[in-house]
Amino acid sequence: MAIESTADRVTVEDVSMVYDGSNGPVEALREISFDVDPGEFVTIVGPSGCGKTTLFRIIAGLQTPTDGEVRLDGEPIDGPGPELGIVFQEYHLFPWRTVAGNVGFGLEQNGTPAPERRERVQDLLELVGLEGFADSYPKDLSGGMKQRVALARALAPDPDLLLMDEPFGAVDAQTKTMLQEELLDIWDATGKTVLFVTHDIEEAVKLGDRVVVMDREPGRVQEILDVDLGRPRSRSDRAFGSYYEEILDRIG
Amino acid sequence: MATDVSNELDRADNVGRIVDSLDSRRVLLGALGLVGFVGLWWAGSTAQPEYILPSPLAVGLAAQSELASGTMQAALFNSVLHWLPGTVVGTTLGIATGVALGWSRFLDEALTPIVRVLRPVPPLALIGFAIAWFGIGHAGAAFIIAIGAFWINFYAAYGGVEGVSEDLLDVARSLGVQRQLGLIRTVVLPASLPEITTGIRTGIGRCWMLVVAAEIFGAPGIGRQIFRASNSLQVDRVIAYILVLSVMFLLVDTAFRVVQRRVLAWR
Question: Ranges for the ABC transmembrane type-1 domain (chain B) (predicted)?
């Protein structure tokens, strides 16, 4: 499969975010710092209200922090762009475009010639297991399939970093397990750097090389855990359980 | 996975069949209603003199004689000669302005006062300008029609653009769309196409109504024929020309609905 690839190092340095609330300033994030190595899979987990979505939007370049900065391979991120592949919980597919049209969107923007584009779209659809659905519209797809399209679309322009915000939060448990395994396979095949936000501790432990554990009021990094487990990982494994308990203790 | 998809496709098919069966029921009941209406009209016309309410048959005969002399075709042709350019120009400008103000906060804030002042002006109130600027004839009538089309399409496009999801714009930006015009072309226009096409459709209908009004000052066409027949109390001819308007509206509206359905097949 011709999915060529690059991966980059992410540096989050002293990122703080303060909003103007009606009762004075609200501190959403306090001095968040961590690194993600090239090709690493890092999950960010925390309770609702810990500012993880704000952090996600800052790293994605969709929001500017009050303080601190995010760098991608040394270059500050100052806005969204093709070097960042973004996958949202709610898919956000372009409903007027077919599956192939959605996946090819980024390639149209970067001027990839049509024949090459078709080929790459085909490769990506194979990668996410949707080769038979190139001409379907999003309305005819299930939630899991939509998220596969969103993933292929984010991968198409060959981003340096794949950023995912609770991508499997809106699908049923069975589909979720399947998508998690597929994501790990794709990560394996492409070697991308992945930053994955979730509120699900089990998911964070199952997927991450490392887990950034966040706490709230204000949103801050509690701890960064190395998950020293081989893959595939199973919830019933004892070591898995102790990682799970440790995180639960910290944020519970 | 393949199975859960085919289930969903099946379900869509079932919905389609239900809609089809509803349609045949609709056609039947609609035909019944129409026959009932004509029947009532007929019954009513027997109790009234011709100049109050002519019978359906009298209207049919009037239409036939207008067709035979070629007057009706010529009137229709003349009306189309200002309806078409008026609708096209008004629709295009309305959509363009609506998208511009819906998208740009700067333009919105700068131009909203003007919009508020101009919006309540009925197209017919501008007849003086129509004559002064464009003369008595097709151009003047087209101007009146264009004004009517403009506002409907302006508000439809404006509302459509306002409703475009911020998230889709974020996605487009993250996939490399940088310029505003690029965002408008790749996201804003397609996302607001449902509203825009509804506006076009509403505007097309409204413009057929304006055809009559726009011909009040002398432009030739169906409206002109209606005024003339009214002045000589030939109510059968009035109704015959009204029916031409209805038929034209129906034809154009149906054709546009087909186009709209195709363009919005993704919904």
Answer: 76-260
The answer on A119 and A20 residing in a single domain is no
Q: Is residue A190 part of a domain?
A: yes
> Using CA atoms, how far apart are residues B40 and B204, in angstroms rounded to an integer?
30
Are B91 and B149 in contact by the 8 Å Cβ rule? The answer is: yes
Tens digit of each residue's pLDDT, chain B (267 residues): 343 444 444 444 455 555 555 678 888 998 999 999 999 999 988 888 888 889 899 999 999 999 999 999 999 999 999 999 999 999 999 999 999 999 999 999 999 999 888 888 888 888 888 888 888 888 889 999 999 999 999 999 999 999 999 999 999 998 989 889 999 999 999 999 999 999 999 999 889 988 888 887 778 899 999 999 999 989 999 999 999 999 999 999 999 999 999 999 898
Q: What is the C-alpha to C-alpha distance for residues A242 and A247, in angstroms, rounded to an integer?
A: 9
Cross-chain Cβ contact B266/A142 below 8 Å: no
Yes or no, beta carbons of A96 and B176 under 8 Å apart: no
Residue A88, domain member (yes or no): no
| Interchain proximity A94–B174, CB inside 8 Å | no
> Domain containing A62 — which CATH number?
3.40.50.300
**Do both A248 and A205 map to the same domain?**
yes
Tell me which chain B residue has its CA closest to the CA of residue A99: B266
Domain ranges of chain B: 1-47, 52-263
> Which DSSP letter does residue A77 get?
P
Candidates A79, A109, A137; nearest CB to B175: A109
Please answer yes or no on whether B176 and A94 come within 8 Å at the CB atom.
no
Q: Is residue A72 part of a domain?
A: yes
Residue that is written with structure tokens 């026959």 in the block: B35
Last residue of some domain: A158, A175, A207?
Answer: A158
ipTM, 2 dp: 0.86
pLDDT in tens, A141-197: 988 899 999 999 999 988 888 999 999 888 888 888 888 988 998 888 888 899 999
Residue at A149 is within a domain: yes
Alpha carbons A111 and A119: distance in angstroms, whole number: 14
Q: What is the CATH number of domain B52-263?
A: 1.10.3720.10
List the Cα angle A190/A192/A193 in 5-degree steps. Answer: 165
Q: Domain range for residue A21? A: 1-83+160-252
Query: For residue B56, how many C-alpha atoms fall within 13 Å in the half-sphere facing its CB?
Result: 11
